[in-house]
Amino acid sequence: MLTAILIDDEKGCLDTLEIELQTYCADVKVLAKFQSAEKALEVLETIRPDMIFLDISMPQMNGFDFLLKIPKINFEVIFCTAYDAYALTAFEFCAIDYLLKPISKDKLIRAVDKVRQKQSKQVDIQNLELLLANMRGGIHHKPNVAVPTPEGLEFISINDIIYAEADGNYSRIMMANKEKVLISRTLKDLETLLSNHPFVRIHQSYLVNLTHIKKYIKGEGGYVVMNNGTSLQVSRANRMKLMDLVR
User: Fold this and answer.
1) What gap in Å lies between CA 216 and CA 242, rounded to an integer?
2) How far apart are the first and last CA of the chain?
3) pLDDT of 36-82, one tens digit each?
């Protein structure tokens, strides 16, 4: 048996989610429902759920601020959000689970299954802080982005990123000021985060800022010369994509 708390300022959403859990996830027991994040905080000292279904946009205290007020998060968090597709890239980049409203039966079942399968019921606090930083900063409308580093979080200017290079499960970002930032995300993750900005994958190892390309040299795949003088190989598979974007 799994236990859950539901938090959403709309009563209709709470009631619907409870019915869907009873119908499709019969082993989930709803311990409590709250239309206020503040009231939920008060009872968390005595109730220990396996998971919390959490709305984001709520008056007084939103879902992010609610979590940041909890000293130790020892339960799974499933965000229930109506955010648009662009903002959802932040959730994916930060490895945070979410359900898009209106919640589909299949996705609800999968989300609960993931909780069942996890050995640890603890959220990665760094992932949560990263998500909060990027959502508050409006990554698709502001020039800065928060990225996770081995030391914590670093805020960098998107416009000043020249290119990023894959380094196993990490990526190295080369900045216009010659600084190199090692982030604890793959190049694919970074590509997803920056998908609404002028970046293109030219090789399995390189993601480049189109505004910092100085020239393209022809060849089998060719290579680009960046504004900082670095030459980067372009794979044959990505050559046409690059050509289409720079024409």
Assistant:
1) 10
2) 58
3) 999 999 999 888 899 999 998 888 898 888 887 887 778 888 888 88
Instruction: Spell out the residues 6+ positions from residue 208 whose beta carbon is closer than 8 angstroms to its own.
Output: 162, 163, 164, 199, 200, 202, 224, 226, 232
Burial class of residue 84 (count of CB atoms within 10 Å of its CB; 0-12, 13-18, 19+): exposed
Tell whether 100 is covered by a domain: yes
Q: How many CB atoms lie within 10 A of CB 85?
A: 8
Same domain? For 79 and 109 the reply is yes
Is pTM beyond 0.90 here?
no
How many C-alpha atoms does 123 have within 13 Å on its Cβ side? 26
The torsion angles phi and psi of 182, rounded to 5 degrees, stand at: -90, 120
Q: Give the domain extent around 240.
A: 143-246
CATH of the domain at 233: 2.40.50.1020
Task: Give the tokens for residue 157.
Answer: 């200017």
- Bridging pattern class, strands 180-183 and 223-226: unpaired
Q: Is the link from the previous residue into 102 a cis peptide, with omega within 30 of 0?
A: yes
CB contact set of 12 (below 8 Å; sequence gap of 6+): none
Q: Can you say whether the dihedral through the CA atoms of 176, 182, 188, 194 is positive or negative?
A: negative
Q: How far is CA 76 from CA 73, 117, 122, 174, in A?
A: 8, 12, 6, 35
User: Which of 102, 133, 164 delimits the end of a domain?
Assistant: 133
The total number of structural domains in the chain stands at 2
